[in-house]
Amino acid sequence: VGETLSFFELAQLYQVADAYVSPYLAEGFNLPVLEATACGLPVICTKGGPTDDFTNSDFALKIDSKLQTNYTRDGDTLWCVVPEQEHLIELMQTVIEKSLLLDHARQTGPKWVLQHFTWKQVVDRLLDVLIPSVKFGRPTFEPIIL
């Protein structure tokens, strides 16, 4: 694209696509998958990675993968999930051939993101991790959500 896009322009770019495809080996979160879901696209992403935590079968197709172990020069162990290429091709064909999948994703994806990923929900989850409520209850302060 070559330039910074506004949120509106980014949404328009997503919405001209048939699907968002993300066959990754290793990811921290993969925010573009969530963005594409919010814009109503079906997503195709690697099974076994972080996207398993925030996608479901209403709008996402999962690429079969295998866990692979690698080692750095220093001897550290690195893991990655390797998507199976043939299954990826099958899933892309499925999205093209089944227009109902796109229609269903346009209905369910944005609603799901709105129900599960508001700023308040994200902050609440973060506070639950940073300030465990098991021993002390909820924090004495509440974050200000703008």
Question: How would you portray this structure in words?
Answer:
The protein is an alpha/beta fold. The protein has a single domain, classed as Glycogen Phosphorylase B (Rossmann fold), CATH 3.40.50. The strands form 2 sheets. A 3-stranded parallel beta sheet has the order 1-2-3, sandwiched between helices. It has a two-stranded antiparallel ribbon with strand order 4-5. It is globular, with a radius of gyration of 18 Å. The chain starts with 6 loop residues before the first helix and ends in a 10-residue tail after the last helix. The mean pLDDT is 90.
- Uncertain segments are none
Strand line-up of the largest beta sheet: 1-2-3
Run of helices and strands = HEHEEEEHHHH
Percent strand equals: 15-25%
Class per helix and strand makeup: alpha/beta
Oligomer: single chain
CATH homologous superfamily caption: Glycogen Phosphorylase B
Total number of strands: 5
* CATH hierarchy, class: Alpha Beta
Q: What order do the helices and strands come in, and which of them pair?
A:
Layout: H1 7-15, E1 20-22, H2 31-38, E2 43-46, E3 60-63, E4 65-71, E5 77-83, H3 85-97, H4 99-116, H5 119-130, H6 133-136
Parallel strand pairs: 1-2, 2-3
Antiparallel strand pairs: 4-5
